[in-house]
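Lab notebook: predicted structure, single chain.

Context: the supervisor wants predicted structures on file for every construct in the current expression panel, including those that have not yet been purified. This is the next one on the list. No modifications to the sequence; it matches the entry in the shared construct table.
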Amino acid sequence: MLTNFAHYCTLFLALGGSTWASALPATQKSSSPEALLSSFGVQLPGPVSVGDPKYTCQVFQKLFPKNDTFSAQSSFYTPLYEIPWSQTCWLEPACVVTPDTASDLSKALQVLEVLKTKFATRSGGHSPSPGFSSVGSNGVLLALQNLNKLGISSDKKTITIGTGNRWGAVYKYAAENGVNIVGGREPMVGVGGFLLGGGLSLFYNTYGLGMDQIVRYQVVLTNGNIVNATPTQNADLYKALKGGLTNMGIVTEFEVMTNTFTNIYYEIYLYAPSSTAALIDAYANYLSDPNTDVNSNVELEIAANFTLAFYGYNAHTNRPKVFDPFYKIPTTSTFFPPTNGTVNDIVFGVDGNAKPVGSTYGSTFSHRVSNGKFMQESYQTYLGLKAKLPQGMNFYYIPQGITPNLVKEGKARNGGNLLGLSATPQAWVDTYIDYADLKNSALAKSTVDSFVATMTAKAAAENISLPYLYVNNAAPAQKPLAAYGAQSLAYIKSAAKKYDPQGVMQNLQNNG
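Prediction complete. Output recorded below exactly as produced.
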């Protein structure tokens, strides 16, 4: 939020949702294209052509005749592939398939496997990573926006969310039922990538990550089985999905814990560059203070000509004392005055939720925080690189502050996760460039990569570097799963081998 405060990458994204049945992994249901399509009651469109996306699209048009498959001749084709946030993800697939149910997705995945056709899947498409949530003419795009189930348990303690939803719809549904949910900071962000990648909400330091709230996954495996994964049912799959992304199959729905903290306090201010150094020091002190109120949150979005600051508290109050050091710093304007409202008021009220025209390239790294020294060095390095960019390239430095309570909450909820986080004050740096002209793509990449490489090396030299890479802000070349640690990576690989023994998600999924 806050002028596109965070991009939620859908790294390796593959998701969907509707009906479910529990089953263990099994062998492929049909060993040949002829046998598989015959079992679906579909006549082959001519001789079988393996690895040919155009042929596969013809199969899908027969398999889903109810206008669920869109080729370049359709008026819906271009709007469908242009949904992603960044134009660098606007690749033109051989066709777009929009399954309506988990059963439809199961059939589609089996067809893609047996015809050895490359594919990509998309939940919301908020990833800024070039080519993600998309595939070119050499593959099929599975667009999952129709998998948008919403349901609440009888005790209102969990909400079931289809992966095709965006957080705006989920927040409205939760509010209608008198509860709150740990979700995205922007209403247009897709559910799937956010939850699989971790998920930083408005109050992530209070509740932990979005993935820590998940009590059940529904997953379509590559053999076509639709399984339920919970702490007691397919428990190894459940654990692997707490960090393993889409390496085991396509998640179609999430059952997520609710909470009753619907009332919050918030204020947002704009500061001049002359105040940024003071804000950084105040922020570092806020993060490193062991007595910082866990019901509070501060976020900074730093640009060359302004800094935007969000101050939030998880209850109705008035100018909480925890923000006193920030109140001493002069502002230039007020986005939101001190307000007692709801999560929906702030999520839907920020102008930055509008989709920009153009592209984005971003990356991430993490480091410990004990004082403001390293953040000040990062800011100066950022300014030096920003000064070399032409007009129209908007470069941001966002040190997303993580307190030990986030790690504590993650370990305490639903069996923990596989992220390998250290319970220490830290920053997950989100840095990115928005730009309108695609000819500046190489410059955007080299600038962001240079900043990350320089500051990662400095963090290591100062002995404050952390290995963790937040998936939802990671660059295409980064390896966030390896950053979890050898034990977590081995667990994910073992689960992937068990639940996707043919390696479909690795070998056929674009950017898999």
